[in-house]
Write a structure and sequence with these properties.
four-stranded antiparallel β-sheet
């Protein structure tokens, strides 16, 4: 439940709207699947209705890359296990996204504070902190 709430919160903070429902399921001893149901915002629904599916999915993929380190930190803190990688996917019909976390056998060995990990992730995806701020402002302006 802790993971579901925090993952939904990460999407809400970074995208303006979180999923209506979030569920987490173990898919084996080292795989955690988090499903985000009905998470597309009104702007995305407008983009979809206008037929711009590729752009919509590209925007979602970019968001998932930007917040990947934040999602990893959430799962590592909750499970006390290292997240080796995160696999992300989004579908429009049904309105569903999935975050699949592949965990290592042992405890997480490096605990970087969540805020620092988020800043690092944004900087690595978008180039620099000022680029990240500009991209967030642009995303809010065009509401992708």
């Amino acid at each position: 439940m802790e993971i579901c709430g925090q993952v939904a919160g990460a999407f809400r903070r970074n995208w303006g709207r979180g999923p209506a429902e979030t569920t987490a399921h173990w898919a084996g001893p080292n795989t955690l699947v988090v499903l985000l149901h009905n998470g597309h915002n009104e702007q995305e629904k407008t983009i979809r209705a206008a037929g711009h599916i590729k752009q919509l999915l590209d925007g979602r993929q970019l968001l998932q890359q930007i917040i990947e380190d934040e999602l990893k930190a959430i799962v590592e803190n909750a499970t006390r296990r290292e997240v080796l990688t995160v696999l992300s996917a989004t579908r429009l019909d049904p309105d569903l996204s999935a975050e699949v976390f592949l965990l290592g056998q042992g405890p997480a060995t490096h605990h970087v504070p969540l805020v620092e990990r988020v800043d690092r992730a944004k900087a690595s995806v978008l180039g620099s902190r000022s680029d990240a701020q500009a991209a967030r402002a642009e995303a809010r302006q065009i509401r992708i």
